[in-house]
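Lab meeting tomorrow. Please check the following:
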Amino acid sequence: MPTTPLMMGGFNPLNVVDPGFVSRSGQGVTLLEDDTVNQWADISGNGRHVGDSGFRPGYTVDPVTGRPVIEFTGDHQALNWTPAWSAPTATLVTVFKLTDASDWRCLLEVGSRIYVAAGAIFFWTTGAQAPGIVTNQTAVVVFQWTPTSSRISVDGGAWVEGAALDAPGNFISIGYSDFSWYGYQMEYAAYPRILSDDERNYLVRGYAQEWQVTLV
């Protein structure tokens, strides 16, 4: 568990022990000749990279922070974990920005699809639905699940509880090939366990500081 304050040594999600995978802004991104993303590497050392699904996202710069981001512009774009990783109990922290909320948008497939619609983010079928997603505003979101429950927290806010996922935490894709996602993907960090409050707060505050997110 990290014990060093952010002002002493800087923020690094690898300071939280036992990561399943970590994908960071501007690190390990492989582009094709048309500047679409072929792979986003896992820097944890576990080799759980996400890659080409046949409908590749682009690569651009976040206008707020000037940092590189992966840009999804619909058209069924996705990045797949190959093979999928199963984590029946897990904590997943992600940083993203939704740029078009005119319809349901599928952020992730992790054994239950995670959608954004009408300002809320939710696991499909579990009942866990958290408000606070604003179009063109970066969010830091934490997902946790066990074999019997799921929950979501947006920008350090209260947990919203739900039922179990449809499948046992299978990490399949960022975006989803049957649906469209419009927005920027900045960061992912997943751990095959429920993090302590201190660990979770370290990640949320560190990402918020880097991406200029105001926490609740």
In short: The chain has a mean pLDDT of 93. DSSP finds one helix and 17 strands in the chain. The first helix runs from residue 197 to 211. The longest strand covers residues 182-191.
